[in-house]
Amino acid sequence: MKVGFIGTGNMGGPMAANILAAGNEVRVYDTNTSATETLEEAGAVRCEDLLSLASNSEIVILSLPGPPEVDAVASEALESMSAGQTLVDMSTNSPAVVKRIAMRAQTKGVGFLDAPVSGGVRGARQGTLAIMVGGDKSLYDSLEPLFGVMGANLFHVGEVGAGNVAKLVNNMLAFSVMMSNAEALVLGAKAGVDPNVLWNIVRTSSGNSMTWEGGGRAILRDRLAPMFTVDLACKDIGLATDLAREVGVDLTMIPTAERLLKDFQASGFAKEDVLATVKALEEAAGVTVRGTWDQ
Ligand code: NAD
After folding, report:
1. Ligand 1, residues at Cβ distance < 6 Å
2. Alpha carbons 266 and 289: distance in angstroms, whole number
3. Can you give the C-alpha Rg of the chain in angstroms?
4. Which of 110, 201, 223, 261 would be 105's cystine partner, CB 3.0–4.6 Å?
5. Which pTM value belongs to this model?
């Protein structure tokens, strides 16, 4: 297959690498030229503009920061795409924005799917992402082998936009739990319980979750390099609360997590990993949980 991949950052880079490794012809484009270097070395062709990528690819995939970037790039790419081609947005995006893009694509006979992912940079590298897809089922079926190269858990969720509804619900849950996990570790430590002991207890008790196990371990090991930044988390949780307003659902817990994340964003954590915000809690409580891993 001739695949064009736009946005080869933390996620898109390894996703495009897996498509290439599966034997596809891959063209790449990113405004940051260093983001495509490794892919070029592996055999991908770097395009100097969107036009040459879009007109030479059967499938055009986007993995961009958020709605404004996707909206602009999709509009430009669609100008040089024609009937029979397919555009797939794998960014985390607003359901309303992807629906608008799908309508523009339809007027040109271009197929469109929204297909956001979960599983982080590690899942992108290992090809084990969860991919939640919205759009025409037969188009999804025809692209399932391509999704299978990037992900291990594939879901056709429903109409265009449904993929992002599922993604935003997942992420608002994950971020609010992450914020709670950090508070739990700091509270337990301040009140005199070894964070390692606490981590093991919760792991086998009712407070456990994927974010407690993985995120808690990363905090205790102090391995907090930016994999999922506070900026991206604010975008995702903001899109989730926008969606709630749009469909008329009153949320209480999630807006609290959103406020907390926005405060961290404004106080120097914007480019840090979400889990790294535990530093502020440690400082306020006068206790350290990072770097205490002893197992
Ligand atoms: P990133 O910032 O590392 O990558 C985005 C890339 O897009 C960058 O290389 C940037 O240079 C490029 N870009 C920006 N504007 C562009 C434009 N106009 N034209 C071409 N390229 C452009 O972000 P990421 O972490 O790879 O995330 C990408 C998407 O995946 C986001 O929507 C994010 O919410 C989602 N996501 C991220 C993770 C994660 O763990 N990082 C997990 C799941 C989903």
Report:
1. 6-12, 29-32, 35, 63-66, 69, 73, 91-92, 117-118, 120-121, 227-228, 232
2. 23
3. 20
4. 110
5. 0.95
Mean pLDDT of the chain: 97
Asked whether residue 227 carries a pLDDT value surpassing 90, the answer given is no
- Is 235 a known active-site residue? no
Smallest CA separation from ligand 1 atom 20, residue: 30
Percent of the chain having pLDDT more than 90?
99
The domain ranges of the chain are 2-159, 165-285
- Of 60, 59, 36, residue with least CA distance to 48: 36
Residue with tokens 């930044």: 229
Q: What is the pLDDT of residues 1-11, one digit of tens each?
A: 999 999 999 99
List 137, 167, 190, 271, catalytic entry: 167
Cα separation of 70 and 68, whole Å? 6
139 burial level (CB within 10 Å; 0-12, 13-18, 19+)? middle
What is the fold of 2-159? Rossmann fold (3.40.50)
CATH number of 165-285: 1.10.1040.10
